[in-house]
Every structure is written in C-alpha cells, then in structure tokens.
Design a protein that fits this description.
Length: 237
C-alpha cells in the first residue's frame, strides 16, 4: 500500500476505496475507512461538507436523510449536533480531521470537496496537519481545483466528471495531476490521450473483477471501488 502520493503514482495500478468500503460498511465512516485499509486498498476517498460551525465533516449528500437517522441539510447543524446522529451501525459522522488521523502513514487520502464553502476550511486543515504529501484534492467543480492550486501550487489535485467533455484538456490547463472520469466514458483513446499529457487516470466506480480487468488493460492508473474485498486482488492477476 502507498503512504504518499508519489508512491501511489509509481504503482502500475492502484485501488481506491470509495467512501471507504461503501458496500461493506456504512459509507464515509471511520469503520468503513478502517475496513478498506484492512482489505489492502492503496487509497481511500471521502466527501467533505461543512457544518453550521464551519467544521469539515465527511458526508456525500447535502442532506442527512439517506445515510443517517437525521434529517435536513448538513449545513444546518453544528458538529456537536451532528455527532448525535447514527451514520450506520452506531457509527458517528466523522470530521475530516478524524479521518486524516486515521489514514496518516497508512494510505493516500482522496478528499472530494462537495461545496464551495468547504474549500478554505479544508485547505486550512491540510496546512495545519501537513497532509499535502499523502492527499489528493478532487472535485467536479474546476473552481475548487483552482482554489486549491492558488493556496498551494504543489498540492495534488484531480478533476472528476461524469459526461464526455474536454475534461482532460481542462484538467491539464489548471495544473491538475489526474482526471477521474466515470468509467463508462473512459475509452481507450481518452485514457491514452490523458496519459500523453502526463495525467493519471482514475475511473469510478467499478465493483466487479471482469470490468476492472478490462479497464486495467485499457491502461488506467487507478480504479475506485465500493468492493475492495473483490478488487484488491486484481493487481496480482
């Protein structure tokens, strides 16, 4: 397993646990992250939003309804209030700081920034904890990536997208290190083009061995999965 981004980028193929181990444990929880690491992933991906008191917490959705026993927007609760909710199997909603301490020295951390307001607090925490060597900041929003690069030009960043567009060229122009396309739009031609531009290619989300092997053979650098229990082994196939 890689512990720094440089080590990750040296790998022929790396596996990223999506929201930890999303299909095996409650997503975006410490328990899920621990499970993914125990299964042998090279990196874990989490989603970040802000609380009412401006603390970065790990939550994919804008609201609590799908993944917790709470209701309403994450942004309308303080951290203390959010900690009262059950995020699955009695897990609590973790802060980004708690996740950082969990993964430090173990695997690379992919931090997906989900909203504009979260960018600066996330970057302040990154500076405070000096997580730059083992973290990659990713987003669907190119402005988030640009903000990260302004804050720290040496930060590792990646642009996520779900529909075919000029994402590869756009990512290169903004100084990103990788592109993260939805796997169905990652053609062999697009992957080769990205790699010619010295961009790493990480596809999402693949949960079966056959498809993962197909994309490995197309030349992707990384595969994001909800089922690390299945996919960590493909590196040896």
């Amino acid at each position: 397993m890689a512990t720094t981004v440089n080590e990750l980028f040296e790998m022929k193929l790396f596996i990223v646990g999506h929201r930890g181990a999303k299909e095996l444990e409650p997503e975006n929880t410490i328990r899920s992250i621990k499970r993914a690491i125990a299964l042998g992933v090279d990196a874990v991906e989490v989603d970040v939003r802000l609380t009412k008191d401006n603390i970065p917490v790990i939550m994919h959705d804008e609201t609590l309804d799908r993944t917790t026993n709470g209701k309403g927007r994450v942004r309308d609760y303080t951290l203390k209030e959010l900690k009262k909710f059950n995020a699955g199997d009695n897990e609590k909603i973790p802060t980004l700081e708690e996740v950082v301490k969990e993964v430090a020295g173990k695997v690379v951390l992919f931090i997906e920034i989900k909203e504009d307001e979260a960018v600066k607090p996330v970057l302040n925490l990154a500076d405070q904890e000096n997580i730059w060597p083992y973290s990659i900041f990713i987003s669907f929003n190119s402005h988030h990536i640009e903000e990260v690069k302004l804050f720290n030009p040496k930060a590792y960043t990646g642009l996520i997208y779900i529909k075919p567009f000029d994402g590869i060229v756009k990512a290169k122009k903004m100084g990103a290190n990788m592109v993260l396309p939805y796997f169905r739009i990652a053609t062999a031609k697009a992957i080769a083009f990205a790699k010619r531009l010295k961009l790493k290619v990480v596809v999402w989300t693949i949960n079966d061995i056959e498809t993962a092997l197909e994309y490995r053979n197309r030349g992707v650098d990384g595969i994001t999965t909800d089922r690390p229990d299945l996919l960590v082994d493909i590196k040896s196939i």
